[in-house]
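User: What would this chain look like folded?
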Amino acid sequence: MTNQNVMVADAKSGINVAIRVAVTGSSSSLFPTPAQKPLAGAYITISKKKLLLQDINAGSRSINAWVDSMRASSPTNLKSSSPPPLSGDQISWNIYHPSALNMLDEIAKAAKGKQIVMFLDYDGTLSPIVDDPEKAFLSDSMRTTVRKLAKYFPTAIVSGRCRDKVYSFVRLSELYYAGSHGMDIKAPSKGSKYNKEDGGVLFQPATEYLPMIDEVYKALLEVTKGTSGAKVENNKFCLSVHFRCVDEKKWSELAQQVGSVLEGYPALRLTQGRKVLEIRPNIKWDKGKALEFLLQSMGYTNCANVFPIYIGDDRTDEDAFKVLREKDQGLGILVSKIPKDTNASYSLQEPSEVMTFLRGLIDWKQFVIKREMKMKSRLQKIISQIRGSN
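Assistant: Here's the prediction, encoded as structure tokens.
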């Protein structure tokens, strides 16, 4: 067993924090990942070169800093019936990221005359975060809402979960599904409103990694089996190590266990989400790339008359928010009860607000359709009267 220094990005400040941890096996790498500058509000990426060449003895205070970073990026659910008073930071954040519910008229105005395309994360967006990821079921009311949404707008579910698992929760064949952070994309069933082709798999850029992912999955199951509350999930093209039910005192131990497995797999990278460590292929593909690919697949490449709306709650969704902001097209909506650095334009607090917002979009679209039908009917009457007078 050897001691190594590791640098992680503090979720609050974005500043790298040094940590000395004990690692079993070779000292070549704890978290073998490519160097990448942390994006504000994006997931944490731990760089192999920059992290492992450090020689700073941080001691127990640095371990605490790492735990604080984990806690900051993975807030516990707020279950109190009455929310605490808003702080100055919260008020300021709300000014720059107002509730999408309050801005629905402005959003509708911006989307007027354009085709809205909906992109929805799953966990924490359509379904509440739960302790057991196998029980993140979609409510009947949310399923009904999403079904109605897809009737009027092309709709895609973009999740870190395995595509088949997300589909088993949602059970709507008329949607696009992008699982494993967009590394497994499938079109709607054949003959659906937005897809006239075979409805098969559209894109899987990491197929060659499948044997490696399965190998690492088995190894992670073995090393984490003694850590109470830890759960390893195989999402086909990526892996998730959930620590929501792990005692915080065991977080650093869990990270060491994950690191000991990843030492031999430099082709994989480790990222952090809400109470989850995620292992995925080290390729240039994320939810932002998936969003662009889906728009292209739907026929909206370089189209000025499309208005993408992406709703998500996690750091991995920031890649999609960033794409929309850089394109100055459509908008991102962050689902969060607390202020976060984000590239999203608006906010919603929880899945219940997401459902209310989606219903608002549906009502607006139905109103537009009825108005257009009335105008068309009036026009037809006028034409008939003109023809009759002649």
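The chain is about 35% helix and 20% strand. If you want, I can go into more detail on any region.
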